[in-house]
Automatic annotation (TrEMBL):
It is an enzyme of class 5 (isomerase). Its main location: cytoplasm. This is Aldose 1-epimerase. GO terms for biological process: galactose catabolic process via UDP-galactose, Leloir pathway; glucose metabolic process.
Amino acid sequence: MVHLIEQDFGKFKNEPVKKFTWQSKSGVKVSVISYGAIIQSILVPDKSGQLNDVVLGFDDLQGYVDRNTPYLGAMVGRCANRIRGASFQIDGVTYQLAKNVSGHDHLHGGIVGFDKVNWKSLVDGSKVIFSHLSKDGEEGYPGDLLTNITYEVTDEGIIKIEFTATTTEKTVVNLTNHSYFNLAGHEMGSDELYNHVISINADKITETTPQSIPTGRFVKVGGTPFDLRIPIRLGDAMKQGQNLFDDNFCINTYGNKELNFVSRVNHPQSGRYLEVHSDQPGVQLYTSNFLPSPDEPALIGKSGVGYRRHAAFCLETQNYPDAIHHPNFPSPVLKPGEIYRHRVNYSFGVDKQFNEPQVISS
């Protein structure tokens, strides 16, 4: 039986911020805070039973309010990822959004996105439902958008997240969770990140410009560094090109009613693994390229740990980026009377006899 406890986690604009912690029979322990609906910690046992926190983050609320520019653990929206030119048209009407990346594009919902608000919370058995009403015109988006996020943790060590949203006007919606994972432990940095072994169920990616804006074309992964269909050591994949990875992979089995296999990541030394299933068409693999370089001051996170470039990976299940500008992408437009739904499961466990793939020579 999963145990769920509720605690205070400080105040934001004189409103209490709540912290919810699930303890599962598998040993997995998960904490989520109401500010940003952020996954604050995930403790997972290794093959010897030792617990370690496998997500980057901060010990206190002020860290998330003042220093969370990389969106550590956050819920991002209304629209995750980028929108070219920070504008879009619906029914001939142009909507101008905040230009908060590259000087002219829009990223992760804008300057005050869903990661920077304190969500209302409701406990329903072992589930926690977070709710937020984004008013018409916030960050330039049309329509009042009511969003709910339901978190649940099972005794098997599965974090189940369901996003739903409704709107009063046609609008753009693409929600995701932006957790940064390092299965060796949040403090272990790039050396252990490179030792992870990854596979992704995708035979193509969305081609992008150097500013990470999709061109509308697709690139088949065969013969490229993006071919992660067969498990490969992450460091070996990353060294095959520059600035790898920050790319949207197109999930092969998208369209099934059930959740589709997205990715599996193993850390051989600890035995920990993460498996991701979702009902979304894409997943953004991001390897923390924009965290501080070795020559820059580190981002100070939990327990005083300094987070730097390639300290963790993200698997952000999503619609394709900038889909509003590409008719050949799944539509991101939500209409009045419709319900936006997005389900994703993050499953954690221990594989005591994992065999590493053959290392690619440099």
